[in-house]
Protein 1
Amino acid sequence: MVKYELPPLPYDYAALEPHIDEQTMRLHHDKHHQAYVNGANAALEKLEKMRQSGDYAAIKAVLRDLAFNASGHLLHSIFWPNMSPQGGAEPQGSLAEKISHDFGSFADFKAQFSAAAGGVEGSGWGILAYEPNSDQLLTLQAEKHQNLTAQGARPLLVLDVWEHAYYLKYQNNRGAYIEAFWNVVNWPDVAARLEAARRAAGR
Ligand code: MN
């Protein structure tokens, strides 16, 4: 059985200060993200036992757990490298061209992504994804981690708007947290993800 593992943060816990605070990063990475890894592995273990016993009576609940926890793990694994202490400003090169082509301008994209993240109902994510069927970028919301996706669209830039991502520093002001996020976006990482996704799609 393949197991999920918690990836290390690609920078120090305090590296994104003052935009994202150290205590939030410690709890968020070490406790919350670890819990999704553990939850996904627990679901995989239950599935292995089901195969051995032939008793699949509980499969619906287990697959619900797997979708929630695996999606949580995978989105956080993109979220950490999507940020950098050297981040911010605007994307360059082919990513900048694709954003302008698909959204009109970077400013239009930024407003749309911020609105998407700000408008998530309850806990979830704002997502910029590449949809290979139409070769275009989409903004999406995820409720919790797994609801409202476009199947097959690959997340390139994700913003966690669960309260655990911002409440210690920003309390109920999700908008201020979203505004701060733009100061740490690692655009070269986003550009590399777009390049890989388009290559995989044969575009
Ligand atoms: Mn989170």
Note: Helices lie at 22-53, 59-79, 93-103, 106-118, 167-170, 174-181, 187-200.
Protein 2
Amino acid sequence: MSQQPPGSPAPQDSSTLSALPTLRVAVLGAGTVGGEVLRLLAQQDAELAHRIGARLEVSGVAVRDLGRDRGEHVPASLLTEDAAALVRSADLVIEVMGGIEPARTLLLDAMEHGASVVTANKALLAQDGVSLYEAADAHGVDLYFEAAVAGAIPLVRPVRESLAGDRIQRVLGIVNGTTNYILDAMTRTGASFEDALANAQQLGYAEADPTADVEGHDAAAKASILASLAFHSRMRLADVHCEGISQVSAQDIAAAERMGRTIKLLSIVERVEEENGERISARVYPALIPDHHPLASVSEAYNAVFIEADAAGSLMFYGQGAGGSPTASAVLGDVVSAARARVHGGYGPRESRYAELESIPLEELRSAFYVSLTVEDRPGVLAEIAGTFSGYGISISTIHQELLEQDEQSGEQARAHIGVSTHRALESAMTASLDVFSSTATVLSIDSVLRIEGE
Ligand code: NAP
Ligand code: HSE
């Protein structure tokens, strides 16, 4: 930064813009998000300068492929493959390259050289946020990451700052745009999983490796970040229970419709009160929710999140959860905050993990379930299934049975499809029941197991 000492008032008149100090901004990555960040930085140059009290000068843009044409907002003259040199001479580093390395080393290096950091990289924060927080503290710089959770939706700031005086009990919602887009397309238009995923990739919603979306890892990273912030404790990524949507079939979607429910990939983080205190849970799985639940109508790549806090009650956040422009909006908000602190002095919020609450294993929680089985169609099968559930203390709420078509000439065994919904039961009891079904001759296959939420 140059020309104006910290703490001095920012000129407000546009004619004085050129007299403002300058902050050097290094941008790591010029893909879906980075391209939009650079567009907004260019288009809103003057307005941002007024809001910050300093001009932002992009000192360079690190990419892998120097030869690719990136449009008017990413001038070739700014492109570099030498990200390491770029971050060492910056006041602010915007990391939108993704992945663990070299992003982690670059950000640590940037902070060591005095730069504040804005990142959208939830994978890195969930895996190694500790090193980043510690580096920010050690070097007296800021670390902002609003864009890492739920795209454009302000969620990190409300949890970390607005609700810092309250006691959050639960955060529940849809935090992955790609999987919501896929499930929505499969439900509303009957699209195949593969076609819907290809569209989500084309629209810039998916991660570089879409397995992270589809298998729930991206949502799990966000759940780990949210739980750590909400409960002032470290929620390790390894402790987040994670199931994706790759096993959700057209039959599951049809069954949900028949039951007046919708399948959504949910992230749930909550306090669990116990006799001797409390523990916390973070989990991600596809779940059936009633059609009348507000989350059921969240379409395309939109995200929506409920926060329940003791004093505030229930809050709902909704908006575009993925895509270049919405995510760039969240990045720019953080850039303004970090830049203001450079100009006017002070620091942004720090990590708080004084509570050190332990996480509770999934097996100790209770959920309602929908279990779909293919069984032999003969007397006693239903009783056998009900008996197994009852043996583990699981109470059935509804059963739906459908005979499957049979080739009579082949002499094959008559088969039926059974869909069982249960009342809330221990996860460990459901696991034990499924173990019995998988070794019982009458149960030909366990087709799906989905939890039921929001009832
Ligand atoms: P992307 O389109 O794949 O862009 C990544 C950019 O980083 C590319 O410009 C790439 O260079 C550059 N890059 C990657 N590895 C590099 C390396 N080792 N050295 C130098 N440059 C490198 O990814 P994106 O969708 O913009 O996502 C970026 C980050 O934002 C990720 O952390 C992602 O999780 C997060 N995020 C994305 C979204 C979204 O909707 N897309 C939303 C929220 C958060 P080349 O162009 O030369 O390949
Ligand atoms: N791939 C992510 C999603 C991007 O689909 O939600 C936003 O974090």
Note: Residues 22 and 55 are 5 Å apart (CA to CA).
Protein 3
Amino acid sequence: MAVEPRRWRLFIDNRWLDAGDGETTPVINPTNGTVLGRVAMATAADVDKAVAAAHRAFTGWSDRSGVERGTLLDKIADQLQSRREEIVANQVANSGKPLVEAGIDADDAIATYRYYADEACRLDARQDTDVQLIEGFAGRTRFEPLGVAGLIVPWNFPLVTSGWKVAAALAAGCTVVLKASEFTPSNELLLGEAALAASLPAGVVNIVTGGPDCGRAICEHPLVAKISFTGSNRVGQEVMATAARRSVPTTLELGGKSAIVAFGDSDPYEAAQWICDGIFYNAGQVCSATSRLLVERSFEAALRPVLLEKTEAIRLGDPADPSTGMGPMTTRAQYNKVISYFDIARQEGLSPSCGGHVVDRNGGLFIAPTVYWDVPPTSRLWREEIFGPVLCVRSFSDEDDAVRQANESDYGLAATIVGQDQQRNARLARRLRAGHIWINSAPVVFPQSSWGGFKASGIGRELGPWGMAGYMGTKHITEARSALTV
Ligand code: NAD
């Protein structure tokens, strides 16, 4: 399905608007450098309009029952489902994702809206539940939405990362201003079309695109009552500092440098598959990418040739071609950042076991899947988030050594365990300091699970009931049953 060149506007109060000062920026197809269209760059005044619309809509939206909100969330899911082919084509053209991955994104977003449609319905039954107090008093608990939610997302999983926030916030009864990345607006703004077609009331969902100033304007806005941010640690710290000035509750989903631990009782082919899934999916532009491989010393000789052969066999190319295994970097800045780590590796005296270079193809932002073996723990490649298709490998002697090395990181987003001993796997799952653990699995995430990091990887949780709880305040009502005085 061809993607037509177009102009993406801001979605505010159920209307499509140009930025106040008319500024736009080009949207690039990273596979070949062609311009897909132009997107509006929202000003602080545009953000103000969006927040004001969300604020006006809040009372009406939050007064609806969970079932009513859930019904509309289901309609958004229906809209996305009916446009799945277009969503996939956008994800391929705008992000450079291979077809299979673009399809997984579409299905993930749809499943998230469906899940929170059900959670919204379930919320009604949880309202005003009795709490046992001492005799003479009755108590009950309610969960109430915080108000206008400012949602800021990066470019690596458009529609998905935003869906995790928007669907949970709407289910809770918040209205939202979503700030999408200016690099990947196509599917984020398609959500506005889906909201319109689903007959969402004006102002419930507002979508602005822009750069750092647009994000800042959301964080600083006095009517924003909740902030949920996904992105880098540097910006996350700024967001938190701004939010702290008004004591606004803030959820942060930040970076990672996740470990994958491979034990010697694994099948080397199976292990290599999970290792490649963990680092080369979305060309490594995944916050939870398992970019640090820890391999049991006795298993290195068996695993190494299989893993390198599998990595070298990954087909780079047009992501619209079903035989393509890995697409380009999504943005030029990210492409340059990965290249800078190849320079750092050289300066540190490291040589890649495979990859370690760009691939020149039709002006696309392609980087060869890369493996560095025996990386010292002091190396910047071992410690810092690269956010690209670069795997660093070290060995470990025993279980304690594996846990120590895996946990020796500022981050704690995710980890994968590969091995046949179930009791050992269960022990490791407890000992690893990370928010999500996979055992003998590709790094799959379901709407019912929780998502979020330990340590510098973030604060709070998305998905599941925990995601929705982040948009609600708990209210307790105490009623005296007799004329008892205290
Ligand atoms: P980024 O922090 O540069 O940008 C994220 C978003 O914040 C963008 O929309 C950007 O325009 C906006 N922004 C930039 N400066 C801002 C400011 N001062 N105030 C408010 N908003 C501002 O991150 P990125 O490069 O777009 O994304 C990559 C990072 O995101 C990586 O570190 C990755 O690990 C992280 N990430 C984390 C998760 C997670 O769930 N933990 C998921 C995806 C990506």
Note: Residues 152-156, 161, 179, 181, 211-212, 215-216, 219, 230-232, 235, 238-239, 253-256, 287, 385, 387, 413, 453, 458 surround nicotinamide-adenine-dinucleotide (CB under 6 Å).
Protein 4
Amino acid sequence: MEPLRCDGRRLMGRLDQLGAVGRLEDGSCCRLALTDEDRQGRDLVVSWMRELGLEVRVDRVGNLIGLRRGSEDLPPVMTGSHIDTVATGGPFDGCLGVLAGLEVVQVLNEHGVTTRRPLAVAVFTNEEGVRFQPDMAGSLVYAGGLPVAEALALVGIDGRRFGAELERIGYAGTLEPGAIVPHAFVELHIEQGPILDQEGEALGAVANLQGISWTEVTLHGRANHAGTTPMGLRRDAGHGAARLACFVHDLAQELGGVGTVGSLRLAPNLINVIAREAVATVDLRHADEQVLAAAERRLEAFLQDLRAQGLGVETRRLARTEPVVFDPGTVRVIEQAAASLGQRIRPMTSGAGQDAQMLARICPAAMIFVPSQGGVSHNPAERTDPRHVQLGADVLLRTLLTLAEERP
Ligand code: HGY
Ligand code: MN
Ligand code: MN
């Protein structure tokens, strides 16, 4: 029998359809977790799952699992990702992994293929962590790293409670998160960085992933007149925040890894008033846990220095995950799948946090990357060549077929 191939055109069509849900004027995909737009996206994906004959299960934190029976009642091979986006998202981040999983199911249906193991396509809640922190909250609960009650009690940046929003959009399921323990988990995702694109590579086999440290820093100063207050008498939260952003940037350059102050709010945020308060977020990442921990200590020492300058400083931990090494055996299956297509595949580290890093806590997990044009993501200009979409889905198809035939 001719080796099975995915229908890249059909997959691009679904990506376009899902990408249109929550689209803003500037072309951004904006489907923050548990918003009405996220619900619309979920409803669309669930309708596709049902059309494909999948049994759809929803767990207590809104993770969706579409199950396809195997010939034997064994732990399933799982694929999938997320469909929630940042506010300035593109159509590929997360969605490619979910919709490629559905494409694999459709190809198997069309060719009457029944795999030994069941297949599962997962949509994990709140991967982005933009509205509710931590990021990857749904898959973290699924992997047993966050109690359900704690997740449901999370309060978003808009003051809404996670559990109430889940109820409101109708995706508060009953399945215990993690009740379905996969035999293996493989996630297809765009790289979201420049490496594959710059090197002219079409595929990446992700062997490991950076650790992430997210902290909210609140600086307290004193509002005063911008014209009359001598520089030596100021307690300027705006200046402290600017120093913090420079410190984080320089620290990352010194230690390697990356450092970002991505969100910054000043109060009262007026041209002629010295800022009394600044609320900033610090995102530090590194592939080496020792270096990431050292960076956190350096940050704390810097904040001490701001205190010594007269600013009040409070911190709140928003997320912390250690670096992850994916399962070498599963990475090998991905590499063999690429080779069977006559394709090279480059070893990669994921700079982004991923649901696969959480699933790696409960089963062998690994990822397939395809290039992001210009290395752009979390931006409406996010694009992946349809030929790479097709290739990534075909490698996923062959990887899942191999894993699904593995005996207990
Ligand atoms: O922040 C991340 O790395 C992911 O996009 N949630
Ligand atoms: Mn993603
Ligand atoms: Mn993302």
Note: Residues 82, 93-94, 127, 189, 352 surround manganese (II) ion (ligand 2) (CB under 6 Å).
